[in-house]
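Reviewer 2 asked us to include a model.

Predict the structure of this chain.
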Amino acid sequence: MPNNPPPPPSDPAHLDAAWLAWHLREAGLLQEATIQSVRCEPFGESVGFLSRMAKLVPTYSSQNPALPQSLVLKMETQHPNFRAVADRLRAFDREVGFYQNMASQTPTRLPKMYAGNAEGGGGWLLMEDLSHLKPGDQVHGLSNSQVETALGHIAAVHATFWENPQLQNFAWLPEHDFWFREDLRGIWPRFRDNYELRIGHEAKTLIEWILANCEQLDAAIAQRSHTLVHGDLRGDNLLLGEPGSEDEVLILDWQTVTQSLGAIDVAMLIGGSDPPAERAGHYQELFEAWFDVLSSHGVRHYSKKDALTDLRLALLSCLRIPLKVFLELKGPKFRNAREAQLADCFILRHTSAALEFDAKSAMPY
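Predicted model (structure tokens):
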């Protein structure tokens, strides 16, 4: 076997069997057998904004149940807007770095990474195929029980890395670097013209305050307790198995992992994936599903009052998400119905969540 791998494919559909064989041998999975051919089955669009994925089904020269019968190849997106975001965030540097350096310490079930490479924001990962599990759906939303379960899993991650100095050791792991954190004042007039009647006067006023005081809000968040944050926790980035099983919730897509306020993940999941009619009357339960796991996993000197303040700050910060999604999906002239539905979900759910949790009471005046 050559010392250097064959060049990676530019498209999963053009993958060379020799490339896959080289990496499976390096991972210690492929011994005597060879790969005769590889079938590529692309996954649906509009699930991963910053990447594209395909299922790979290799044909081996001899059968061995220990060999993966299928794998997932994840590569950078070809969508120009999202590719620019992925490059700015160095998305593959983060995800490859996370799996290579932190996944083994992460107390939740993750897909195995067999191989990966990151260069200049782009790259690829070869991963365990878990397509037999049910994918979460951003548009359909999650039930309260699914949200509570996912919050318990991410809380265990937050607790493991809570104020952990190890987070400072990795150049690929920035602080407070979220995909929605930018100056979005330019898109506000177009957004307002299309959505102000639907989100209501109170939400409109709240967003205007945030756009005028982003630096003050971000500075307040920077003073709070930090941990490892997923950075894009929502339905489309979850796989759902049988409740109580090892696979009950798998959190995918760690391309936006960062150091910041743990409550950002909570605000993203509740505000983006729990429909208002479903979460009505369950706000305290959802918050406590996260806080109680933090406490039970050893997070000390963090009161429920402090945690609620952090959640409200996070909900304020996440009110930039609707504008960023509207901008990147080129609203209101969306390419297809799915993107229009996604925009509506982000916009209407995040604004209602901020109001329902009284996020404005945490405004750092």
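The chain has a mean pLDDT of 93. The first strand starts at residue 35 and ends at 42. We have added this to the supplementary material.
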